[in-house]
């Protein structure tokens, strides 16, 4: 598996008169679980969509690296999975039908598909809901199905936009267990979240507020440097509009 | 078949066919609409309510009135003695009133002017014209009976009505209505299905998958082309079974014409979806195209009767070419000149529409 990393440089994105991102630079080093932390409207989704190549920056750049060497987005694209924040599944298709559809989108052969879907159904514990339609899944199961569809192609880069938003605490914890399992495979994972307690679960955090980067680094180091006991306190100290 | 395309075809068909309402919309509605339009959109004017005002003992006028009622076009509209004929028409109890001359018809004819009065309600001009035409024929026939037949004219017609000998309007209308229904269903379904994906956010997932733009576009349109063709076949079968509208031309002509139309309309639906933000807008956008397209297609009103500017616009209407094609194939047996001229025009439109849809689609993706 290739070792991808991403670096943004002075990333800016305007939507008409509204400036969503205003000069953000951070490093998404390879093989780690990165958290993009910030309140609603901080610019998390815009950042994610820029990373996924769905938007073009107004100024600045997103640079991709493979094994430390600069790489084109086209090289990374086949290995990239992006899970959007909004409900992005088909309510009238079942769990199994979703997997089938994504299998063919990612052009997986039958053997790979069989092994991987069995593994994913196992770890997400959705195996007994194979025939259930996505519209009838609970919030947590729905997010897990979204993750499963994204993971079906065994990506080397996984971008998850607020995967735990609106999910109950137990399902959230389960979801994070899943992410730890993935992080152990040394793939680059970027998770955005507005839940401050989730920041401490990441190996690197990048704190966003109103389109600016407040801090970036290893969670405990970031807290220590700011002299804050937790991330809520940190955001308040930095004058963020939490 | 390409695996991605297969995945999309399977997914779209599963989604479209799973929903009971969608099934009803795609397969039930066309048949119901075809039946209703075929029966109701009759250009023949029948059941005209005629009131007759005659003086006492006017036998000749009575025979004229009988001529009207026995023609099959008119119904008897009763009225109270001494009622005002204008009042009768104003209140809608009669569509027309036939009034005898005060002196009686026979006497007024002897004096050289056998004039009766016919009042016609022309709020519906088409109906009024039909009433006038019927009345002239009936009076002429009656005059021939009263004063002896004059069948000694030097110049006469020997009329033979081709392709639709009974001149049933359903023969003419049903093929047109078929085109209209296929056009309506494909445009609305395609535009709605693409905007639904945009609305739900699923479009973003598809776009972020490693697929080319062409694959996404084909994946979202080919299923609707297939559904559109299935609908075309269904409607042709229904037209034959319900109205006895024949298919006199070869089926391959019908298939090619339907394919060209469906590719065009699916492309138009795609184009609408790139402009619309949500399903409501897609629906309204679809109808913004459909209403003028149907009115200018010649399904109900002959294109030749329209003002020059409208005729020019009608030449941009894919449905117009299809209606010419399908009438030619179904009723006339598929004259090749009509076929290639219109199929060429429609095919060109299909290519243009598909190209334009692809260009817009790519722009909105990036």
Number of helices of chain A: 9
Assembly level: heterodimer
Largest interface: A-B, 30 and 22 residues
Percentage of residues in helical conformation of chain B: 55-70%
Span between N and C termini of chain B?
27 Å
Structural class of chain A: alpha/beta
Going across the biggest sheet of chain A, name each strand in turn.
6-7-8-3-9-10
Total number of beta strands of chain A: 10
- The structure class of chain B reads mainly alpha
List the domain count of chain B as a whole number.
2
**Overall residue-averaged pLDDT value of chain A:** 89
The rounded distance between the terminal residues' Cα atoms of chain A is 39 Å
Low-confidence stretches of chain A: none
pLDDT averaged over residues of chain B: 88
Rg from Cα of chain B: 28 Å
Order of strands across the biggest sheet of chain B?
2-1-3-4
Catalogue the unreliable spans of chain B.
none
Helix content of chain A: 25-40%
Q: How much strand of chain A?
A: 25-35%
Order of helices and strands of chain B: HHEHEHEHEHHHHHHHHH
String of helices and strands of chain A: EEEHEEHEHHHEHEHEEHH
């Amino acid at each position: 598996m290739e070792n991808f990393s991403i670096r943004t440089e002075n990333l800016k994105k305007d939507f008409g008169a509204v400036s969503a991102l205003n000069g953000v630079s951070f490093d998404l080093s390879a093989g780690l679980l990165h958290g993009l932390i910030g309140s609603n409207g901080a610019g998390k989704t815009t950042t994610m969509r820029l990373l996924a190549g769905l938007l073009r920056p107004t100024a600045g750049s997103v640079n991709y690296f493979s094994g430390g060497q600069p790489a084109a987005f086209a090289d990374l694209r086949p290995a990239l999975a992006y899970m959007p924040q909004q409900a992005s599944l088909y309510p009238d298709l079942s769990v199994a039908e979703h997997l089938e559809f994504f299998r063919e989108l990612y052009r997986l052969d039958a053997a790979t598909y069989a092994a991987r879907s069995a593994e994913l159904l196992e770890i997400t514990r959705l195996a007994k809901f194979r025939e259930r339609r996505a519209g009838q899944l609970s919030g947590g199961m729905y997010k897990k199905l979204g993750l499963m569809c994204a993971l079906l192609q065994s990506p080397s880069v996984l971008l998850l936009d607020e995967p735990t938003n609106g999910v109950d605490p137990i399902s959230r914890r389960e979801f994070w267990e899943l992410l730890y399992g993935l992080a152990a495979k040394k793939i680059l994972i970027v998770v955005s979240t507005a839940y401050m307690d989730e920041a401490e679960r990441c190996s690197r955090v990048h704190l966003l507020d109103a389109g600016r980067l407040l801090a970036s680094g290893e969670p405990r180091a970031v807290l220590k440097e700011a002299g804050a006991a937790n991330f809520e306190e940190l955001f308040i100290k930095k004058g963020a509009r939490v | 078949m390409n695996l991605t395309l297969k995945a999309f075809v399977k997914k779209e068909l599963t989604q479209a066919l799973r929903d009971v309402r969608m099934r009803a919309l795609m397969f039930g509605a066309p048949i119901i609409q075809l039946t209703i339009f075929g029966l109701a959109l009759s250009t023949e004017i029948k059941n005209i309510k005629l009131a007759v005002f005659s003086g006492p003992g006017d036998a000749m006028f009575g025979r004229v009135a009988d001529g009207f009622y026995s023609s099959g076009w008119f119904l008897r509209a009763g009225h109270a003695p001494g009622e005002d004929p204008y009042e009768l028409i104003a209140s809608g109890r009669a569509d027309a009133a036939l009034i005898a001359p005060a002196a009686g018809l026979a006497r007024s004819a002897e004096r050289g002017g056998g004039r009766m009065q016919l009042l016609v309600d022309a709020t519906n001009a088409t109906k009024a014209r039909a009433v006038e035409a019927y009345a002239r024929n009936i009076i002429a026939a009656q005059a021939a009976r009263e004063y002896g037949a004059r069948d000694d004219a030097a110049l006469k017609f020997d009329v033979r009505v081709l392709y639709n000998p009974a001149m049933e309007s359903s023969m003419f209308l049903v093929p047109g209505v078929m085109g209209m229904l296929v056009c309506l269903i494909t445009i609305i379904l395609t535009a709605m299905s693409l905007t639904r994906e945009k609305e739900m956010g699923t479009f973003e997932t598809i776009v972020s998958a490693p697929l080319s733009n062409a694959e996404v576009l084909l994946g979202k349109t080919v299923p609707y082309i297939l559904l559109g063709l299935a609908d075309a076949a269904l409607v042709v079968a229904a037209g034959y079974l319900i109205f006895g509208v024949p298919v006199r031309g070869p089926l391959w002509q019908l298939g090619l014409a339907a394919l060209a139309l469906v590719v065009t309309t699916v492309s138009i639906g795609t184009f609408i979806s790139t402009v619309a933000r949500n399903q409501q807008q897609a629906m309204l956008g679809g109808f913004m195209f459909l209403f003028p397209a149907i009115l200018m297609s010649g399904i109900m009103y002959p294109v030749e009767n329209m003002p020059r500017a409208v005729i020019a616009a009608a030449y941009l209407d894919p449905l117009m070419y299809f209606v010419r094609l399908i009438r030619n194939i179904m009723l006339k047996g598929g004259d090749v000149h009509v076929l290639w001229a219109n199929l060429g025009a429609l095919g060109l439109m299909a290519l243009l529409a598909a190209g334009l849809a692809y260009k817009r689609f790519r722009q909105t993706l990036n």
